Amino acid sequence: MVAKVVDEFGGVDILVNNAGTSSATTLEKMTDENLQIDFGIKVYGAIYCARAVLPHLKASGAGAIINTTTPGGKASSPGTQPTSLSRSAGISLTKSWAGELAEHNIRVNTICVGVLKSGQHRTRWESMNAEDSSYTLEDHWKSVGAKVPLGRIGEAQEAGDVICFLASARASYVTGTAVNVDGGTAPVV
Question: What's the confidence (pLDDT) of residue 188?
Fold first, then answer.
């Protein structure tokens, strides 16, 4: 992947680690397989990608890494592991890497994303719609959004805009931070 980007664009200046699924269960029900899959996608995936682009980010002289995590990584609710656990690890990586990579002018931040209109939520709606065909996608967005203080589910572009800011020169003095993009649902800053 990195070789293809370098071949086409001549280098790498920005890495966005944005992979994952929402996996939530209790300690008693969580399996080793749940842990392996979740950490493999979210934590190991971020580490492998960051290691692969690091020489290119150093060469660019002003790189940025943006990790995608969740507010649950800051304040876990009961029954939200392994996702809350792996996202806590992602926030920890962000803080650690920000300190390690600052000498190379590489900024590292994370966005803690709440509920957005995404493939995951569309898949959940599809299974609900299969049971009740009158339950529309718009009904689903309204239902999920009702739990958000801003009263709606977020658009992917709203998270993308924050990522673009953090990757830009306008955020040249921002590193090691975890920004909530969640419509006000997080119980922490």
Answer: 87
Cα 110 from Cα 20, distance rounded (Å)? 14
CB 102 within 8 A of CB 59: no
Does the pTM of the predicted model rise above 0.85? yes
Bridge-partner residues for 109, per DSSP?
66
| Model confidence band, residue 121 (pLDDT cutoffs 50, 70, 90) | confident
Q: Is 133 helix (H, G, I), strand (E, B) or coil?
A: coil
Q: Left (φ > 0), alpha (ψ -120 to 50) or beta: where does 40 sit?
A: alpha
pLDDT at 67 over 90: yes
All structural domains of the chain, each given as residue ranges with its CATH number in brackets, are 2-114+157-181 (3.40.50.720), 116-153 (no CATH)
Report the percent of the chain where pLDDT is more than 70: 100
At 49, list the tokens: 């990608």
Q: Cα(114)–Cα(117) distance, rounded to whole angstroms?
A: 10
CA-based nearest residue to 174, from 163, 185, 160:
163
Q: Are 80 and 24 in contact (CB under 8 A)?
A: yes
